[in-house]
Specification:
Blueprint (H helix, E strand, L loop, with lengths): L1 E10 H10 L3 H5 L2 H8 L3 H22 L13 E4 L5 E5 L5 E8 L3 E9 L4
Helix pairs in contact: 1-4
Cofactor: Mg(2+)
Family: Belongs to the P-Pant transferase superfamily. AcpS family.
Pfam families: ACPS (PF01648)
């Protein structure tokens, strides 16, 4: 049963600019494992990865129905790419199946998260 769904659209340039102005912001957004994947990328691929993880966590918080804040932080979920580049939720505060999708253009990243679990 679908428990929640969340969609987010993020401008890559906005995330790049935030990172320039606040270089430590990705310590707040990325888990240590996500940061390791981020550091293996260069240039635009890094910006897309950071924007993608920001957007995934926004989508996840929307699917939970909490938004990011008191009840959910960026560190409460971890999304890692497998060897083929497909993102997977490997850690989250949700006890169920987490389906994720990420899509990029040159300017935007769009993400969707679907939470699947047992009815309460």
């Amino acid at each position: 049963m679908i428990i929640g769904t969340g969609i987010d659209l993020t401008e890559i340039e906005r995330i790049k600019q935030m990172h320039v102005e606040h270089p430590h912001m990705f310590d707040k957004i990325l888990t240590p494992n996500e940061r390791a994947q981020y550091e293996k990328r260069q240039g635009q691929a890094q910006a897309e990865y950071l924007a993608g993880r920001f957007s995934l966590k926004e989508s996840f918080s929307k699917a939970l129905g909490t938004g990011i804040g008191r009840h959910f932080s960026f560190q409460d979920a971890e999304f890692l790419d497998d060897e083929l580049g497909k993102p997977h939720a490997v850690q989250s505060v949700f006890d169920g199946v987490v389906h994720v999708s990420v899509s990029h253009t040159a300017q935007l990243v769009m993400t969707q998260v679907i939470l699947e679990g047992k009815p309460e």
